[in-house]
From TrEMBL:
GO cellular component: MICOS complex
GO biological process, one term: inner mitochondrial membrane organization
UniProt-recorded name of the protein: Uncharacterized protein
Species: Ceutorhynchus assimilis
């Protein structure tokens, strides 16, 4: 704290007095102890003020950060909600419904020979793949 280095001194005081709790010291030692205590109180007061201000500043910084985080979270939440709403309308349409019906009708007609429906199943699969690619491209275009 100060510019000069201080050393701790150790000394032992023998007290031959009956009330062992009282130690007599010279006036010079008493003055040095008083000065030392006053100086420590001043340093302690300054440190206390410093830490109080530092804590206050950090609390304010955290409040500002929390406001930004809340704002960004709500923004992201609204983006997800709006993209889900847009995507829901596309997802309600069942893709390749006519091909699906054709596959089911073929399996009913040829329940003993399912390989007869291979071309219709292939057409249905291609239709579904095409619709999937279209949906993915639409989502990709919206996000850009």
């Amino acid at each position: 704290m100060g510019s000069s280095s201080s050393q701790t001194r150790k000394f032992t005081v023998e007290n031959d007095e009956v009330p062992a709790s009282v130690i007599k010291v010279s006036e010079n030692v008493a003055n040095r102890l008083r000065t030392s205590c006053t100086h420590m109180d001043e340093i302690s007061g300054t440190d206390s003020e410093y830490w109080h201000n530092r804590t206050k500043h950090m609390e304010e910084s955290h409040r500002e950060i929390n406001v930004v985080i809340d704002r960004e979270f709500n923004k992201a939440l609204n983006e997800v909600k709006s993209s889900r709403t847009a995507g829901d309308s596309r997802m309600k349409e069942v893709p390749c419904l006519d091909y699906e019906r054709a596959v089911l009708d073929c399996y009913r007609m040829h329940n003993e020979e399912p390989m007869c429906c291979a071309r219709i199943v292939q057409a249905f699969q291609e239709c579904v793949d095409f619709k999937r690619v279209c949906l993915l491209n639409a989502n990709k275009t919206e996000s850009e």
